[in-house]
Amino acid sequence: MMDNDIVNSNNKNEFDAKATTWDTPEKIERAQIMADAILADSTGIKLESAFEYGCGTGLVSIALREKIKKIVLADISDGMLDVLSNKIESNQFTNLFPMKLDLTTEEPPVERYDVIYTMQTLHHIQDTQQIIQTFYKMLNVTGRLFIADLDAEDGSFHGAGFDGHNGFVREELREIALSVVFKHIKFQDIYSINKINLVGENRTYPLFLMIATK
Fold first, then answer.
1. Which of 71, 94, 180, 201 has the most Cβ atoms closer than 10 angstroms to its Cβ?
2. Number of structural domains in the chain
3. Residue-wise over 72-104: b if at least 16 C-beta within 10 A, else e?
């Protein structure tokens, strides 16, 4: 396996195991806040199509389903996608379309989207530049990208053995987005996660939202 394959396999197994108990009140609240932020910053663009990467059980997209005509939800975890598919079927959501997809190793869909969003997924992906470049290609002209993730932290959020990023320095992420030729890049605070980390400390980990326009 290549390094990316190992990381992705570890992530997949971890999230498969967590899928059936994923939808806690905190995660539902966080997803609604993300959805509200996307809608608040989508004035002036059409909302015909959207793509969520690292969708998990679909909490963000379900919160957006009445505002966006078609949403494609992608993840690498079979467990998460099974839970999502059951939600779609039982609630008869007709505009949500789950897809198993790993954008670090597979080609993106040929469809182009008005909005792409991802929440707490970027820090699991080793090549930040590559995935942001892929998102850029997947957007319609003047489409918008929304990335919510951890601010840079000391590694205690995931603990020893985590192979991804320990959050991000906002200005460094801005420079990556600029190099991909995104425009109108801005950041805002979006949420704070209170968590007892693996060494037993009760810590607060802030999340940012980066918004960028193609």
1. 71
2. 1
3. bbbbbbebbbebbeebbeeeebebbebeebbbb
d(CA 111, CA 99): 13
What average pLDDT does this structure show over 3-11?
A: 45
Range of the domain at 11: 3-213
* Burial (CB count <10 Å: 0-12, 13-18, 19+), residue 160: exposed
3-state class (DSSP) for residue 200: coil
Q: How many residues can be counted in the chain?
A: 214
Q: In this structure, what CATH number is given to the domain that contains residue 62? A: 3.40.50.150
* DSSP one-letter string for 136-187: HHHEEEEEEEEEEEEBP--STTT-TT--S-S-B-HHHHHHHHHHTT-EEEEE
Rg of the chain's alpha carbons, rounded to an integer? Answer: 16
Note the Cα 119 to chain centre separation in Å: 3
HEC string for 120-144: CCHHHCCCHHHHHHHHHHHEEEEEE
Do 165 and 153 meet the contact criterion of CB atoms below 8 Å apart? Answer: no
Name the percent of the chain lying above pLDDT 90: 81
